[in-house]
Amino acid sequence: MIDLLISAATVIFIYFLVFFLVAQTIRNNSIVDMGWGAGFIVVTLSTLFIQGAYTERSLLVALLVIIWGGRLSYHIIRRNWGKPEDFRYANWRKEWGRWLVPRAFFQVFMLQGVMMLVIAYPIILINAYQETGLGFPDFLGLLVWLVGFYFESVGDKQLARFKQDPANKGHIIKTGLWKYSRHPNYFGEATMWWGIFIIALAVPLGWSAVISPLVITILLLFVSGVPMLEKKKKDNAEFQAYAKTTSKFFPWFPKTK
Question: What's the chain's Rg over C-alpha atoms?
């Protein structure tokens, strides 16, 4: 297991080093977001091939990661291609000044690499063992993962369609899944990792994989997801009214005024 973790860490380091070098060349650190989903596919397949344990469980999880990671990377690339650097990274570029390159290396690319290793831990754990057959945790985890994938993929699609309509410029989406959560796509991503954690409970030390969904949930809720987007909209009166009636993260029926 330790050897496989070291192999995964090495793959992740090389992966993000390449993204860092490209980002410095084109002066756009936000391309790191394009590689987030695809990076998990790289880690999953590389550890699967290194270990060589092609069990029903490891193949199931590999399929789930390929579906999720492929869709997410395609969505972000399609959304960001040809556009300037994302506002978060552009602000850091101004704030960091002459320390931009080293801070981008450690605080953007390598930090995401560490986060990827931690979040991918249940996948690496599953790939490390050769228990065959699927049981209750696998099917329960798959069900939870499907719920999460629905919220993330449908939420992203509804938001993209809303933004494509010129009549909605300057307005906030409040329909579809966004009627029940201000961030249904983030809720969906966290839920998928809880699903993979449940699948990991079927292998030795599976309980230790709880670190993965805990970290991604905390990141999305309190660090890099929800707070950054909501801070950007703190002066938007329409969003503030929407926030008073709509759940921040977990989907729930809107409050009546």
Answer: 19
pTM: 0.91
Instruction: Write out the DSSP string of 29-67.
Output: GGGGGGGHHHHHHHHHHHHHHHH----HHHHHHHHHHHH
Look at residues 15, 58, 37 and name the one whose alpha carbon lies nearest to residue 188. Answer: 37
Rounded to whole angstroms, how far apart are CA atoms 115 and 16? 12
Whether residue 69 contacts residue 38, with contact meaning beta carbons closer than 8 Å, is answered with yes
- Torsion sign, CA atoms 187, 191, 194, 196: negative
Mean pLDDT of 101-126: 95
Range name among 58-67, 171-180, 222-231 with the lowest pLDDT average:
222-231
Q: How far apart are CA 64 and CA 156, in angstroms?
A: 18
Residue written as token pair 């969505």: 75
Angle at 223 between CA 213 and CA 81, to 5 degrees: 90
